């Protein structure tokens, strides 16, 4: 039964893909001319000049007028506008003319002020395919700030990647996972699995990429290779910790009924949606993937709450890796620093507020990190643990008391 269902899904995938390909090819055949820029992205500084080439095919048999704008002149009324509305760049003409038999034309631009814009090219010839006649242009105050941003990006990428391993080491050293909340683990593995589905499918699936380009023309794909690598690594590392929970001492710890119910509902809903997607037009695979990302965001908001409450009930952070938190705090802080640097470099402060979800989630994660740091170094710094059992006593003990106890190990 399952095999028949799987074959049915594969068949629907093939039909949908072929239909999309044929539709795209028919659209190209209907086009009299096709305009395409030699590059899709250009990064320059203020007062820096550069150029790109516009290609036209087939060779025109008539004079073709081109209009350049930083808005979207896809309707006839917009095409007749004599303003380019380009404020971050200049140095180009609003109108260009391609003579018969000319296949290319070079267009020069110059950075005017910091910002980001999309230069769009249109023509007066009806039926011309101009969907690839655009260039995304970034004008920076200083390219050196971009370099600093890249370095910061790699540092927080490494910090977040390494942050998974201190918890593994503590579990292995103690031969116990007591102190690590299982609700947190259940939420964490689900969040990272959903994050992996989103990144892998959007990065590798040509069908979903086509859906993205159709919905968001001239936009940059929001997933890069490092996002895919990080997501897969996060699932791997979290899975190792879960395996440790089956091997080492865990007392009576288990996932709470509330989290089991929540995760069960989430997985069932997504399984049902996977069946619905191939049979509808209003709900496609891209929308399905974005649902994964929304759930991941929601999990990121709530996943630390069970661990913080667990620490409070035990009056201890023993068994919970503070190194993990310090690395996560480092990565989150550098991520926000990079965001502000780029906003300054491109005078693009609105991006922070337009992408408030990312900014807000970063702040929430940092606030939880601060809470865990306070719990570990201030509130429960004197919690003790028995070496013989590796279990937390849940008692706060003064420094003088610690000196009189032989079988004490502090979590440091």
What does this molecule look like?
By secondary structure, the protein is of the alpha+beta class. The chain folds into three domains: 1-30; 34-140, Immunoglobulin-like (Sandwich), CATH 2.60.40; 143-403, no CATH class. It is 55% helix and 16% strand. It has 14 helices and twelve strands. It has helices at 2-30, 76-79, 143-162, 165-174, 182-204, 206-215, 225-247, 257-276, 285-302, 304-314, 322-345, 350-354, 356-379, 399-403, and strands at 34-37, 41-45, 49-57, 64-69, 89-90, 95-98, 104-111, 115-123, 129-132, 134-140, 383-385, 392-396. Helix 5 crosses helix 6 (206-215) and helix 8 (257-276) packs antiparallel against helix 9. The chain starts with a helix and ends in a 9-residue tail after the last helix. Residues 15-20, 22-29, 72-77 and 387-412 have low confidence and may be disordered.
Tags for this model:
5-stranded mixed beta sheet; alpha+beta; Immunoglobulin-like; 412 residues; 55% helix
Q: Strand content of the residues, in percent?
A: 15-25%
Q: What does the radius of gyration come to?
A: 28 Å
| Total DSSP helices | 14
**Shape type:** elongated
If you average the pLDDT, what whole number results? 82
**Order of H and E elements:** HEEEEHEEEEEEHHHHHHHHHHHEEH
- Termini separation comes to 54 Å
Strand order, main sheet: write it out. 5-7-3-1-9
Residue windows where pLDDT falls under 50 for at least 5 positions: 15-20, 22-29, 72-77, 387-412
Overall number of domains: 3
**Fraction of residues in helix:** 40-55%
What structural class do helix, strand and pairing data support?
alpha+beta
What's the total number of strands?
12
């Amino acid at each position: 039964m399952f095999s028949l269902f799987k074959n049915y899904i594969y068949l629907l995938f093939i039909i949908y893909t072929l239909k999309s390909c044929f539709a795209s090819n028919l659209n190209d055949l209907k086009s009299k001319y096709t305009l395409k820029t030699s590059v899709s992205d250009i990064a320059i500084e203020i007062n820096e000049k550069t150029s790109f080439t516009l290609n036209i095919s087939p060779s025109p048999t008539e004079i073709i007028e081109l209009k350049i704008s930083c808005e979207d002149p896809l309707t006839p009324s917009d095409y007749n506008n004599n303003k380019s509305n380009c404020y971050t760049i200049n140095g180009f003409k609003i109108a260009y003319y391609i003579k018969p038999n000319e296949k290319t034309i070079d267009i020069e631009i110059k950075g005017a002020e910091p910002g980001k814009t999309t230069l769009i090219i249109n023509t007066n010839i009806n039926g011309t395919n101009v969907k690839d006649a655009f260039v995304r242009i970034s004008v920076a105050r200083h390219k050196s700030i971009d370099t600093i941003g890249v370095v910061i990006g790699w540092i927080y990428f490494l910090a977040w990647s390494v942050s998974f391993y201190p918890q593994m080491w503590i579990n292995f050293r103690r031969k116990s996972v007591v102190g690590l909340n299982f609700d947190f683990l259940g939420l964490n593995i689900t969040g990272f699995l959903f994050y992996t589905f989103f990144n892998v499918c959007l990065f590798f699936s040509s069908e979903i990429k086509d859906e993205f380009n159709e919905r968001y023309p001239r936009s940059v794909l929001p997933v890069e290779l490092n996002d895919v690598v990080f997501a897969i690594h996060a699932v791997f590392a979290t899975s190792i910790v879960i395996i440790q929970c089956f091997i080492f001492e865990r007392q009576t710890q288990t996932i709470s009924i509330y989290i089991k119910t929540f995760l069960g509902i989430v997985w069932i809903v997504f399984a049902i949606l996977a069946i619905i997607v191939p049979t509808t037009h209003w709900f496609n695979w891209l929308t399905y993937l974005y649902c994964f990302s929304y759930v991941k965001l929601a999990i990121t908001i709530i996943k630390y709450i069970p661990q913080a409450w667990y620490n409070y009930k035990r009056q201890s952070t023993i068994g919970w890796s503070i190194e993990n938190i310090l690395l996560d705090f480092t990565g989150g802080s550098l991520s926000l620093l990079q965001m502000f640097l780029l906003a300054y470099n491109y005078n693009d402060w609105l991006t922070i507020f337009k992408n408030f979800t990312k900014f807000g989630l970063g702040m929430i994660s940092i606030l939880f990190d601060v809470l865990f740091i306070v719990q570990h170094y201030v509130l429960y710094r004197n919690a003790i643990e028995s070496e013989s059992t590796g279990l937390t006593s849940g008692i706060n003990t003064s420094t003088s008391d610690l000196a009189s106890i032989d079988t004490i190990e502090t979590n440091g």
